[in-house]
Specification:
Layout lengths: L20 E10 L11 H9 L3 E10 L3 E8 L17 E5 L4 E8 L2 E8 L6 E9 L2 E10 L3 E8 L17 E7 L4 E9 L5 H4 L6 E3 L1 H11 L4 H11 L2
Parallel strand pairs: 6-12
Antiparallel strand pairs: 1-2, 1-11, 2-3, 3-4, 4-5, 5-6, 7-8, 8-9, 9-10, 10-11
Length: about 240
């Protein structure tokens, strides 16, 4: 006897509200922009020649009405990454949406951290601008992290789950598009699937040096204090 499992891709046109599923995001990073703060010299010209301008990888978010898990789904093996750009398949981010807590395992150079804290509190400003992403009409919202880093998000209230890529949440619907211009990085959903996550998928094993938002910020500030502008951008990246 054969068991056939159907994977249904859904859009806003054929279902009104979704509270369980899986989203694939393409994360795109402009690596050459990371070199713009450096002088135009033989080294930067060599980097631009030897490393691709854009690298992209696929991430996934599995979610229910009260829980979400975000992680790398597929690294592009053809990519050549500049320093700090390579994704880690050990990075796993779990959000408890009822209790507004987060558990984030993140590799930071040679150290693995396990941040366990309340979810990031963001002051979102919702606009009237809309955009269609993966078949869903999304509304634009903006906020800042680390006091000055501008973040643009597009969320849909047809997926009634307040979560999104990385540690972002707090909007009245799921974030399907995200951009952090100062990190030259975007995340946009390419697929939304009506697949209910399993208990195992929603409870991944995590490990690392336990920390909080405040303690991680302090540790990274100290470790990157001599790195200049690169250090500041690494700090922002690790605190996404």
């Amino acid at each position: 006897m054969y068991c056939i499992v159907f994977c249904v891709t859904v859009t806003a046109q054929n279902i009104a509200f979704i509270t369980n599923g899986r989203v694939e995001y393409e994360r795109r990073l402009n690596q050459h922009k990371q070199l713009d703060d450096e002088e135009d010299n033989d080294w930067t010209r060599t980097m631009r020649k030897n490393f691709p301008k854009i690298v992209s990888d696929i991430y996934e978010l599995r979610f229910t009405s009260n829980r979400s898990v975000y992680k790398l789904a597929q690294e592009n093996t053809d990519n050549k990454y500049l320093w700090g750009s390579k994704p880690s398949d050990a990075d796993v981010l779990v959000q408890n949406l009822n209790e507004h807590t987060i558990s984030m395992q993140r590799d930071v150079f040679e150290q693995t951290y396990l941040l366990q804290d309340t979810s990031r509190k963001l002051d979102w400003h919702i606009t009237n601008e809309t955009r269609t992403i993966a078949g869903f009409e999304c509304r634009k919202a903006v906020t800042k992290i680390c006091d000055s880093v501008y973040v643009v998000a597009f969320y849909t209230d047809q997926i009634a789950v307040s979560s999104g890529p990385e540690s972002f949440s707090g909007l009245p619907g799921l974030i399907l598009g995200l951009a952090v211009p100062r990190l030259y990085t975007t995340w946009f959903a390419t697929k939304v699937e009506l697949i209910e996550p399993t208990t195992v998928q929603l409870n991944p094993k995590q490990k690392g040096k336990k920390t909080t938002w405040e303690k991680l910020h302090t540790d990274l500030n100290k470790a990157l204090s001599d790195w200049g502008k690169f250090g500041t951008k690494f700090l922002w990246m690790f605190l996404l």
